[in-house]
């Protein structure tokens, strides 16, 4: 299998007639998906999403793809194709458009509706090009053909990009639910036709490559919900992703069958379902919906709340309910809460905290580990093999996955008969050229993490994060001494501030005495040197705290001269 | 179902003839298991374990049960019964024995061997009472009878405590593997006999109460390992818990069958397997083991390394290998790594980071989600029901679980025909009295988290943790101004130190000018007031940073008077 060179050099200039492919995100991680295609000086971007931070990136709100590689060439970008409306595919669009607002955004109706709402918050008025499955759109040298795929959000598309160098197909995120609620099947016929014509390079979703078999239909959740509704004697709350229109549709249908009214809880849930209903993607029976205020005055057994917070977000409606501090909703013993959602890796602790909080209050909590109230939106191994067999690409480049997923996808390709040299295993920044029908890794460019924290983009970097990790684990102790430099006398004894180290305010008292002694000794035995005094403070306190506590708080000495 | 009162009062004095039961840990959480029994002024402790911290408890090494409830009564403790040698059952023993070293510790041979090794590190020489399944031990008014149970560590015991108030049975951790490697079956016969004689209160392991069915035998892992060994052409590394003797035994047996020598990697692995071999619990064929140094000079296909690090610990041997910075072991493309272990909730991100690191280097990683290389050590629903049907307790108190597990266990009990009033749902600190054959909640005592951080116990509390969380997410900015108080003049302009806020060293320059202005205005318009100046600094910087960045770093103003 094409072993990625872990120490690649910068790529050569793009040869004439070649198509270049590079991911700025989404290869080696789940999130911030962004592929950049280059042909004859023109760039086509496919998706532009965000990545959510891990515990090792404390305080960060979002991680963006590193635009550094293309930001000096934004005028060369002929379009951004958006395969669907999930945050990991559209979330970074505002940050790209801040730099050049008139880059055309090409996508399906629902995708563009979501991205338009997002851009409005950033006060950006975008250039939108709406396409549907089967449509063509020509952006410079890139002739794009859009293909229907089925995913956990409506209106998802794959894209075939026809270029003089060859044909590249990007699946976006997809699965092959054979009984989709909206009838939108992944269009295997078109994949087969493209395959027969010749797909040079297939970029395919690897998220579930480690999972054997085929997806369970979304539709199968309906009867499970029916059973839960049937047994719920009191209040019923269903939590899900705010973009999962089909999941919400099933809850609405279930509510109709069980004579419950529906109230939506959570800003993004209300907004997205409004958009979906306006576009005819969510069928809302007349009289079904009630306002939350009204819902709370109705008998609990006559309402179902549909809420955000399925990932254990502490500030979400459900998070507050679990702690018993939601303004409107109080959980009572015997209530039923359904988490009809995935458990995104990294959120486990938060989600279980919510489940335990609800269980403690006496609620029955139904979640994916206790009942089939969720199915994944990504094709597992069986479907990935199917796509490979149908599309028969010359080369496969697994995308959208951590390394474990990319490798698993590569192994599936080998099972279907592709030889190892036909699988291009790349990570973010690795440059792949398609030339004369042959795809190969030609180099790599450095890709960093661009952090959004509050209003600022990029000012928090690895140095700040490293400081945060130390401060967060160990706290700090700051020691300030005021010195008269001409005489080398201490004008004011050492002032100490420590936070996050100990609940005992006197913890550092012994160290303070030691420092005073050391400083006096220093000043009496040599010439005054502010830097040296700082070192003395740092060393003395560092040794004391290590010996006494076996801990390493951040030590910040300051010598102020007056 | 016995609904716990969430706002219970302090319990009344223990009535004569009553048995009191209270958990200091393990109810409402997975870990720091510790139950305290009281009869006629005497205390019996069952287990004394640690809890591992979550992300919300940054920098903490361990969490202990809150001994506050019993520390003024340590002379009343007649014994500590240890059901088995896992950290969440024995890890806090050294901290208890620091306060009274001669409390007798009662447990099986392997359990005591592990606790002895642990106490040696703390320089404590304990009083040990070795017991085996079937043995009796009388500790004051508590007549203890030990029962064989099967778990993921050898030599585990349940305990029946006969008291004048009635019979309490505590399962410890258990499962019902019907083909255990060492032949030690969970002794249903004794549970049945005790049930026939009358069990008044059963405390039973709830960890897997949400999991349907029955455990897969530990033995079933052998053929899976055989298959992995069969296909491994190069280096092979198996990672597991250092206390899982039976899992390691299977790796040894597999190594023999596939002509590989074995080297152990990791301090705790070497130590525990030494103990297990000495006690005859691990059968090590002569000539099988080699030293790691020697293993590294042998052809890779002739060795298997058995390593710690299965939970993704970054400093473990496996964690270092995954990052490519282990001193001795370099992962090559084509190597095979097996994580033959559970994935402890909260460790997911760390474990996947290790798996991805290994996959990136080209290794094939086999883990519980891709092959059956792990089975749990805890009884799932089917076995919990079986125990209830065999032991027929009058009352059940689910233990060892978060709220979701305790409630699921209660639901299982109701399925077996126990009425809701026979299930005592309690959390840490809730006091249950058994009087005249009736178990009931009579109150609760406050239970806190006692944090071990480095060498100190208890000095880090909620205040320090709250500071750490803020510092870790947002960093801090400290501003110091030196003032001559009698004249109210600023002797030295504001000195600013910020860490963890921004990688831009000039980030706060505009704020600094604002603060200087505000301070001067303050000093020129009113009498000098140090506290007021601090407030001005905090408010000015706080508003500026919130307006500019939408962030909330810790702001630490200091006014130094000279």
Describe the structure concisely for a colleague.
The structure is a homodimer of 562-residue chains. Chain A is of the alpha/beta class.
Q: How would you describe this protein?
A:
Two copies of one chain form a homodimer. The first copy, chain A, is an alpha/beta fold and 562 residues long. The first copy, chain A, has three domains: 19-213 and 376-446, Ribonuclease Z/Hydroxyacylglutathione hydrolase-like (Metallo-beta-lactamase, Chain A, 4-Layer Sandwich); 218-366, 3-Layer(aba) Sandwich (Rossmann fold), CATH 3.40.50.10710; 462-561, Roll (Ubiquitin-like (UB roll)), CATH 3.10.20.580. The first copy, chain A, contains 15 helices and 25 strands. The first copy, chain A, has helices spanning 87-90, 93-97, 109-121, 188-197, 221-231, 245-257, 267-278, 292-297, 317-323, 348-360, 381-391, 403-415, 462-474, 509-525, 530-549; strands at residues 19-25, 34-39, 42-46, 62-64, 77-81, 104-107, 127-130, 136-139, 142-148, 157-163, 166-170, 201-205, 236-239, 261-265, 303-307, 336-339, 364-366, 395-399, 430-435, 438-444, 450-453, 456-457, 476-484, 489-499, 554-561. In chain A, the strands form five sheets. An eight-stranded mixed beta sheet of chain A has the order 7-6-5-3-2-1-19-20. Chain A has a six-stranded mixed beta sheet with strand order 8-9-10-11-12-18. In chain A, helix 5 crosses helix 6, helix 11 crosses helix 12 (403-415) and helix 14 (509-525) packs antiparallel against helix 15. The mean pLDDT of chain A is 95. At the A-B interface, helix 10, helix 12, helix 13, strand 23 and strand 24 of A face helix 10, helix 12, helix 13, strand 23 and strand 24 of B. Chains A, B: Residues 31-225 form the Metallo-beta-lactamase domain. Chains A, B: Its EC number is 3.1.-.-.
């Amino acid at each position: 299998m094409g072993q990625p060179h872990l120490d690649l050099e910068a790529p050569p200039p793009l040869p004439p007639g070649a198509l270049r492919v590079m991911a700025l995100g989404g290869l080696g991680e789940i999130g911030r998906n962004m592929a950049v295609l280059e042909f004859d000086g023109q760039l086509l971007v496919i998706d532009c999403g965000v990545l959510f931070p891990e515990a090792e990136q404390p305080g960060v709100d979002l991680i963006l793809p590193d635009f550094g590689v293309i930001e000096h060439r934004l005028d060369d970008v002929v379009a951004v194709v958006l395969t669907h409306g999930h945050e990991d595919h559209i979330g970074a669009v505002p940050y790209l458009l801040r730099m050049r607002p008139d880059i055309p955004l090409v996508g399906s109706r629902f995708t563009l509706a979501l991205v338009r709402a997002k851009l409005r918050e950033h006060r950006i008025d975008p250039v939108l090009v709406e396409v549907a499955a089967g449509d063509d759109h020509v952006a410079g040298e890139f002739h794009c053909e859009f293909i229907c795929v089925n995913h956990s959000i409506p209106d998802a598309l794959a894209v075939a990009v026809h270029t003089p160098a060859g044909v590249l197909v990007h699946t976006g995120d997809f699965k092959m639910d054979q009984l989709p609620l909206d009838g939108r099947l992944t269009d295997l016929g078109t994949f087969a036709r493209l395959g027969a014509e010749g797909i040079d390079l297939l970029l395919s979703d690897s998220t579930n490559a480690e999972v054997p078999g085929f997806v369970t239909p979304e539709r199968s959740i309906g009867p499970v919900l029916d059973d839960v509704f049937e047994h719920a004697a009191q209040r019923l709350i269903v939590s899900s992703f705010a973009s999962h229109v089909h999941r919400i549709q099933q809850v609405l249908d279930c509510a109709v069958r069980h004579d419950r009214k529906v109230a939506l809880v959570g800003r993004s849930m209300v907004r997205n379902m409004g958009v979906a209903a306006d576009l005819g993607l969510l069928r809302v029976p007349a009289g079904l919906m009630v306002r939350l205020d009204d819902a709370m005055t109705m008998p609990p057994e006559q309402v179902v709340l549909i809420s955000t917070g399925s990932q254990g977000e502490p500030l979400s409606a459900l998070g507050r309910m679990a702690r018993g501090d939601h303004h409107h909703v109080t959980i009572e013993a015997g209530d039923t809460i359904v988490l009809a959602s995935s458990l995104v890796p990294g959120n486990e602790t938060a989600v279980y905290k919510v489940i335990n909080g609800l269980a403690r209050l006496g609620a029955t909590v139904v979640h994916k580990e206790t009942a089939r109230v969720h199915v994944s939106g990504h094709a597992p191994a069986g479907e990935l093999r199917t796509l490979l067999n149908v599309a028969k690409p010359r080369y496969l480049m697994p995308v959208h996955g951590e390394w474990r997923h990319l490798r698993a996808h590569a192994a599936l390709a080998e099972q279907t008969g592709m030889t190892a040299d036909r699988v291009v295993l790349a990570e973010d920044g690795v440059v792949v050229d398609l030339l004369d029908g042959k795809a190969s890794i030609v180099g790599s460019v450095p890709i960093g993490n661009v952090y959004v924290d509050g209003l600022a983009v990029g000012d928090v970097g690895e140095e700040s994060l490293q400081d945060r990790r130390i401060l967060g684990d160990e706290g700090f102790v700051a020691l300030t001494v005021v010195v008269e430099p001409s005489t080398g006398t201490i004008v004011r004894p050492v002032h100490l501030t420590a936070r996050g180290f100990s609940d005992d305010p006197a913890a550092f008292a012994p160290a303070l005495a030691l420092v005073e002694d050391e400083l006096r000794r220093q000043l009496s035995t040599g010439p005054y040197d502010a830097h040296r005094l700082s070192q003395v403070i740092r060393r003395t306190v560092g040794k004391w705290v290590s010996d006494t506590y076996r801990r390493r708080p951040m030590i910040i000495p300051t010598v102020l001269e007056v």
